[in-house]
Amino acid sequence: MTSDPLALFEEWFAQAQASEPNDPEAMALATADVAGNPSVRMVLLKGHGPDGFVFYTNAGSRKGHELAANPNVALLFHWKALRRQVRIEGLAEPVLGAEADAYFATRSRDSQIGAWASDQSQLLDHRETLEARFAELAKRFEGQPVPRPPHWKGRRVVPSHMEFWSDGAHRLHERRLFVRTEDGWAEGLLYP
Q1: What are the catalytic residues?
Q2: I need a surface site. Which of 17, 39, 64, 142 has the fewest CB within 10 A?
Q3: pTM of the entire structure?
Q4: Hey, what domains does the chain have and what are their CATH numbers?
Protein backbone atom coordinates (compact mmCIF):
# COMPACT_ATOMS: atom_id res chain seq x y z
CA MET A 1 0.00 0.00 0.00
CA THR A 2 1.26 3.44 -0.89
CA SER A 3 1.67 6.23 1.64
CA ASP A 4 1.34 8.82 -1.15
CA PRO A 5 -2.33 9.84 -1.53
CA LEU A 6 -1.74 11.39 -4.96
CA ALA A 7 -0.31 8.11 -6.28
CA LEU A 8 -3.21 6.21 -4.70
CA PHE A 9 -5.67 8.61 -6.33
CA GLU A 10 -3.98 8.05 -9.71
CA GLU A 11 -4.35 4.26 -9.27
CA TRP A 12 -8.01 4.49 -8.23
CA PHE A 13 -8.83 7.01 -10.96
CA ALA A 14 -7.32 4.74 -13.63
CA GLN A 15 -9.47 1.87 -12.32
CA ALA A 16 -12.55 4.13 -12.37
CA GLN A 17 -11.82 5.16 -15.97
CA ALA A 18 -11.74 1.47 -16.90
CA SER A 19 -14.89 0.44 -15.01
CA GLU A 20 -17.26 3.36 -14.45
CA PRO A 21 -19.95 3.49 -17.14
CA ASN A 22 -20.47 7.27 -16.91
CA ASP A 23 -18.17 10.19 -16.16
CA PRO A 24 -15.46 8.80 -13.86
CA GLU A 25 -14.10 12.37 -13.78
CA ALA A 26 -17.35 13.72 -12.25
CA MET A 27 -16.83 15.16 -8.80
CA ALA A 28 -19.03 16.97 -6.33
CA LEU A 29 -17.63 20.40 -5.49
CA ALA A 30 -18.71 21.92 -2.17
CA THR A 31 -18.19 25.62 -1.60
CA ALA A 32 -19.40 28.09 1.00
CA ASP A 33 -20.05 31.79 0.97
CA VAL A 34 -18.43 34.19 3.45
CA ALA A 35 -21.23 33.51 5.95
CA GLY A 36 -20.51 29.77 5.77
CA ASN A 37 -23.66 28.84 3.83
CA PRO A 38 -22.73 25.73 1.80
CA SER A 39 -23.63 24.72 -1.72
CA VAL A 40 -22.62 21.70 -3.76
CA ARG A 41 -22.76 20.74 -7.42
CA MET A 42 -21.16 18.32 -9.86
CA VAL A 43 -18.21 19.49 -11.97
CA LEU A 44 -15.69 17.64 -14.11
CA LEU A 45 -12.06 17.02 -13.25
CA LYS A 46 -10.01 18.44 -16.13
CA GLY A 47 -6.51 17.82 -14.80
CA HIS A 48 -4.71 16.43 -11.79
CA GLY A 49 -1.21 15.82 -10.55
CA PRO A 50 1.14 16.58 -7.67
CA ASP A 51 -0.02 20.21 -7.61
CA GLY A 52 -3.74 19.45 -7.26
CA PHE A 53 -7.07 18.89 -9.00
CA VAL A 54 -8.24 21.25 -11.78
CA PHE A 55 -11.73 22.26 -12.90
CA TYR A 56 -13.11 25.23 -14.85
CA THR A 57 -16.09 27.50 -14.30
CA ASN A 58 -17.67 30.84 -15.01
CA ALA A 59 -16.30 33.33 -12.46
CA GLY A 60 -19.68 35.10 -12.48
CA SER A 61 -21.55 31.98 -11.38
CA ARG A 62 -22.59 31.28 -7.80
CA LYS A 63 -19.63 28.95 -7.32
CA GLY A 64 -17.34 31.52 -8.93
CA HIS A 65 -18.42 34.18 -6.44
CA GLU A 66 -18.14 31.73 -3.53
CA LEU A 67 -14.66 30.63 -4.62
CA ALA A 68 -13.52 34.26 -4.83
CA ALA A 69 -14.86 35.00 -1.33
CA ASN A 70 -13.88 31.72 0.34
CA PRO A 71 -11.39 29.41 -1.40
CA ASN A 72 -11.87 26.54 1.10
CA VAL A 73 -13.55 23.69 -0.78
CA ALA A 74 -14.26 19.99 -0.68
CA LEU A 75 -14.38 17.52 -3.57
CA LEU A 76 -16.00 14.10 -3.65
CA PHE A 77 -15.48 11.38 -6.25
CA HIS A 78 -17.99 8.52 -5.96
CA TRP A 79 -17.27 5.49 -8.10
CA LYS A 80 -20.26 3.23 -7.50
CA ALA A 81 -19.03 0.40 -9.76
CA LEU A 82 -15.86 0.17 -7.65
CA ARG A 83 -17.68 0.77 -4.36
CA ARG A 84 -15.18 3.51 -3.56
CA GLN A 85 -15.09 7.21 -2.94
CA VAL A 86 -12.40 9.83 -2.43
CA ARG A 87 -12.95 12.97 -0.37
CA ILE A 88 -10.56 15.91 -0.80
CA GLU A 89 -10.40 19.13 1.18
CA GLY A 90 -8.18 22.08 0.39
CA LEU A 91 -7.80 25.53 -1.11
CA ALA A 92 -8.95 26.35 -4.64
CA GLU A 93 -6.29 28.53 -6.23
CA PRO A 94 -6.62 30.26 -9.62
CA VAL A 95 -5.13 28.49 -12.63
CA LEU A 96 -2.81 30.65 -14.72
CA GLY A 97 -4.41 32.24 -17.77
CA ALA A 98 -2.12 30.40 -20.19
CA GLU A 99 -3.19 27.05 -18.72
CA ALA A 100 -6.87 28.02 -18.95
CA ASP A 101 -6.33 29.18 -22.55
CA ALA A 102 -4.67 25.88 -23.46
CA TYR A 103 -7.50 23.81 -22.00
CA PHE A 104 -10.21 26.07 -23.50
CA ALA A 105 -8.66 25.51 -26.94
CA THR A 106 -9.27 21.74 -26.59
CA ARG A 107 -13.02 22.14 -26.03
CA SER A 108 -15.46 21.64 -28.86
CA ARG A 109 -16.35 24.81 -30.75
CA ASP A 110 -19.96 24.62 -29.53
CA SER A 111 -18.76 24.34 -25.92
CA GLN A 112 -16.51 27.35 -26.45
CA ILE A 113 -19.41 29.38 -27.82
CA GLY A 114 -21.62 28.13 -24.99
CA ALA A 115 -19.14 29.55 -22.48
CA TRP A 116 -19.68 32.98 -24.04
CA ALA A 117 -23.47 32.59 -24.32
CA SER A 118 -24.24 31.51 -20.75
CA ASP A 119 -24.55 33.85 -17.78
CA GLN A 120 -24.13 30.80 -15.56
CA SER A 121 -26.32 30.75 -12.43
CA GLN A 122 -28.19 33.93 -13.42
CA LEU A 123 -31.96 33.90 -13.95
CA LEU A 124 -32.98 33.07 -17.52
CA ASP A 125 -36.33 34.34 -18.77
CA HIS A 126 -36.76 31.79 -21.59
CA ARG A 127 -34.70 28.99 -23.11
CA GLU A 128 -35.04 30.79 -26.44
CA THR A 129 -33.00 33.71 -25.05
CA LEU A 130 -30.01 31.42 -24.47
CA GLU A 131 -30.41 29.76 -27.87
CA ALA A 132 -30.58 33.16 -29.59
CA ARG A 133 -27.42 34.32 -27.79
CA PHE A 134 -25.67 31.12 -28.84
CA ALA A 135 -26.69 31.66 -32.49
CA GLU A 136 -25.54 35.32 -32.41
CA LEU A 137 -22.16 34.34 -30.96
CA ALA A 138 -21.73 31.50 -33.45
CA LYS A 139 -22.20 34.07 -36.20
CA ARG A 140 -19.85 36.55 -34.50
CA PHE A 141 -17.02 33.99 -34.25
CA GLU A 142 -17.67 32.38 -37.64
CA GLY A 143 -14.43 31.62 -39.48
CA GLN A 144 -12.16 32.44 -36.55
CA PRO A 145 -10.94 30.78 -33.35
CA VAL A 146 -13.14 31.31 -30.29
CA PRO A 147 -11.08 33.00 -27.56
CA ARG A 148 -11.52 32.13 -23.92
CA PRO A 149 -14.03 34.49 -22.32
CA PRO A 150 -12.52 36.66 -19.57
CA HIS A 151 -15.01 35.25 -17.05
CA TRP A 152 -14.13 31.60 -17.81
CA LYS A 153 -11.54 30.58 -15.20
CA GLY A 154 -9.78 27.53 -13.91
CA ARG A 155 -9.26 26.54 -10.29
CA ARG A 156 -6.77 24.08 -8.83
CA VAL A 157 -7.67 22.46 -5.53
CA VAL A 158 -4.49 21.99 -3.52
CA PRO A 159 -5.36 19.21 -1.09
CA SER A 160 -4.74 19.42 2.64
CA HIS A 161 -6.80 16.31 3.46
CA MET A 162 -7.58 13.24 1.35
CA GLU A 163 -9.76 10.35 2.48
CA PHE A 164 -10.04 7.06 0.59
CA TRP A 165 -13.18 5.04 1.40
CA SER A 166 -13.70 1.41 0.34
CA ASP A 167 -16.91 -0.53 0.92
CA GLY A 168 -16.61 -3.33 3.45
CA ALA A 169 -18.76 -6.26 4.54
CA HIS A 170 -21.13 -5.60 7.46
CA ARG A 171 -20.57 -1.85 6.94
CA LEU A 172 -17.00 -2.27 8.22
CA HIS A 173 -15.71 0.06 5.52
CA GLU A 174 -12.05 0.99 5.19
CA ARG A 175 -11.28 4.69 5.54
CA ARG A 176 -7.71 5.90 5.00
CA LEU A 177 -7.05 9.53 5.88
CA PHE A 178 -4.04 11.50 4.63
CA VAL A 179 -3.27 14.92 6.12
CA ARG A 180 -0.66 17.19 4.56
CA THR A 181 2.19 18.11 6.90
CA GLU A 182 5.32 20.23 6.46
CA ASP A 183 7.21 17.02 5.64
CA GLY A 184 4.70 15.42 3.26
CA TRP A 185 1.68 13.39 4.31
CA ALA A 186 0.60 11.76 7.59
CA GLU A 187 -1.62 8.70 7.24
CA GLY A 188 -4.15 7.12 9.54
CA LEU A 189 -7.29 5.03 9.61
CA LEU A 190 -10.77 6.19 10.57
CA TYR A 191 -13.56 4.13 12.06
CA PRO A 192 -16.28 3.52 9.47
Answers
A1: 171
A2: 142
A3: 0.93
A4: 5-106+150-190 (2.30.110.10)
